[in-house]
Design a protein that fits this description.
Elements lengths: L19 E4 L1 E2 L18 E2 L2 H14 L5 E5 L8 H14 L5 E6 L1 H5 L3 H9 L2 E9 L3 H6 L6 H14 L3 E7 L7 H15 L3 E6 L7 H8 L7 H14 L5 E4 L10 E4 L3 H14 L14
Parallel strand pairs: 1-4, 4-5, 5-6, 6-7, 7-8, 8-9
Antiparallel strand pairs: 2-3, 9-10
């Protein structure tokens, strides 16, 4: 067994299932989002560079053919560029077949890095950043304590685009509750159109016990969307999307209806499918809650 150092639970995007996971940071530097319970028991810190180098050295002995590495935890992009560049250079030396390094980034992290710094990171095989947009609505972002406004997210994402650094954007359907579903869908589509990401993934909100938003749903101050209402919200958003060539997925375990498409190429067919499913509302079409999970 490879004795790497991990602190607490470690999370990764579904697409990084076959990647080597290295914990470059512990927790999330923001850690205030009302819907997220992943890092509440961790105090954020950037791991000591020498500790991380030891993990890389161990990994290179056991997994010398590693081609993909994911740097955990919540937003490793917050690491100062000079230090992150050292980590990337070390990874490149340790793994001759390295193809791509990836990590999570908060919107604030992009605003703290220049385009030049992002280009340097990209040139050292930082191949994709996973960015949680959650919503394009200013009121929703404020309510969930995201810490940024839509225009901040757009500005940060544009720096990544200018640097040629691919973005995988995550949106959380149902986040605004039934009262805010129309605004959530409309404004999220608006922001996505301005960012024009390479990848877009939709998750459906599953209130996590112990989080503030879960208490809001239980108390009734936010009304949870039904499975069909969640699908209607997705349809409203897709109708307004104007993306260039985006790999679109809504096949996460939390989603009631698995969806795959390339937008805008498949947009017409996707909308037709969503409208048909919503019109029919056949029992058994949507995934049972027994098979949903985070």
């Amino acid at each position: 067994m490879m004795p790497l150092q991990y602190e607490g639970d470690v999370y990764r995007p579904p697409s990084e299932a076959n990647s080597l996971i290295l914990q470059a940071t512990v927790g999330c530097s923001h850690n205030q989002c009302t819907f997220c319970g992943m890092y509440k028991n961790k105090k954020f810190r950037i791991r000591n560079l020498e500790e991380l180098k030891l993990d890389i050295e161990k990994s290179s002995k056991y997994l010398p053919n590693t081609s993909r590495v994911f740097l955990a935890d919540g937003n490793a992009l917050t690491i100062p560029s000079e230090q992150l560049l050292i980590i990337l250079e070390y990874l490149n030396r340790a793994f001759p077949k390295l193809d791509r390094v990836s990590l999570y980034g908060n919107p604030q992290d992009f605003l703290e890095k220049s385009v030049k710094e992002l280009v340097q990171l990209k040139n050292n095989k930082l191949g994709i950043v996973y960015l949680g947009l959650e919503s394009g609505s200013a009121s929703v972002l404020k309510a969930i304590k995201k810490g940024v406004a839509p225009e901040d997210i757009i500005q940060g994402a544009k720096r990544a685009k200018e640097a040629g650094l691919p973005l995988s954007i995550t949106v959380l359907n149902g986040l605004a509750g039934l009262e805010g579903t129309v605004e959530h869908a409309r404004e999220t589509a608006r922001v996505l159109n301005l960012i024009d990401p390479e990848y877009l993934g939709l998750l459906s909100l599953m209130p996590v016990p112990g989080t503030y938003i879960n208490r809001c749903f239980k108390q009734g101050s936010i009304k949870e969307l039904s499975p069909w209402q969640l699908l209607e919200e997705i349809k409203m958003m897709v109708e307004k999307l104007e993306l260039t060539n985006c790999i679109f997925r809504a096949n996460h375990a939390s989603n009631y209806l698995p969806i795959k498409a390339v937008l805008s190429r498949d947009q017409e067919n996707l909308l037709a499918e969503l409208k048909w499913v919503l019109a029919q509302r056949r029992p058994g079409t949507l995934k049972s809650d027994l098979f949903r999970g985070l």
